[in-house]
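tool_call: predict_structure(chain=1)
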Amino acid sequence: MHTNDLSHWQHDHTFGQDQIKAGEKRTLFVVILTAVMMVIEIIAGIIYGSMALLADGLHMASHAAALCISLFAYIAARQLASDRRFTFGTGKINSLAGFGSAILLAGFALVMATESTSRLLNPVAITFDQAIIVAVIGLIVNGVSAWLLMATPHEHHHGHDHHHHDHNLKAAYLHVLADALTSFLAIGALLAGKYWGANWLDPTMGIVGAVLVARWSFGLLRETGRVLLDQQANDKIIHQLIDAIEKPGTDRVSDVHVWSIGHGVYSAAIAIVSDAPKTPDHYRALLPMQINIVHTTIEIHQCPSHEANKTR
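tool_result:
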């Protein structure tokens, strides 16, 4: 067999990562909005003495950094999609970006909690009217950003929506959604301080915001860590795959590994024992399309007892 005859059995490993993702352009727009509002809120928080406003600005700073990482990941994944050094394509770049964003969030949460505690113990004068105006503008900006990302057209694979597998888009959306919530808390704290004299609520809301950021950070660390460490797919997917192969006949799956390699795409390594082994293509055709397994290695063994009977 000539070398060029192998082309029929070979395929690329881009798995769609060379295409512009649905959220890339909108993420860029949200990055610009977030960065501008971040600068305004941090400066206003310092000038007007509002820790809740400053915490919201710092919170937004963490999100701006995370959104920049997400945007870079989109571009890097697309440009390196055909690079053969990446065994299963560049799909995990977005998970790596999400992991980095989560670490940044944890750091900013610590800064927010420390500064808020300091302000709680050593109160400073707050210029409520100006601080409230800036916080309301921040809430509007965050709301628009969240709407833009939520309205991003979802990507579809084999009829299934895989928006939730795009860690970049999910991170961006949750970042601005959390920002909107923090802005809302800041407004409530400032209003309570202005009308009821509850100035202690301002730094308290800064602490609440820090807890929210930390909680979200740990959740993203777990989610992206599973992908980066090639954790086995959930039991539902594994059972679907095994049932699809075993139901037609006497074939049995002796070993199976399924792991995520990108936005809603999986790779699988499957070992099959059979009395009458069939071709790998036969077993690939049985795999459920909704799982979206784009790369499969199939190991086939003939049942030893069946081989012994044939030699008699």
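agent: The longest strand covers residues 252-262. Proceeding to next step.
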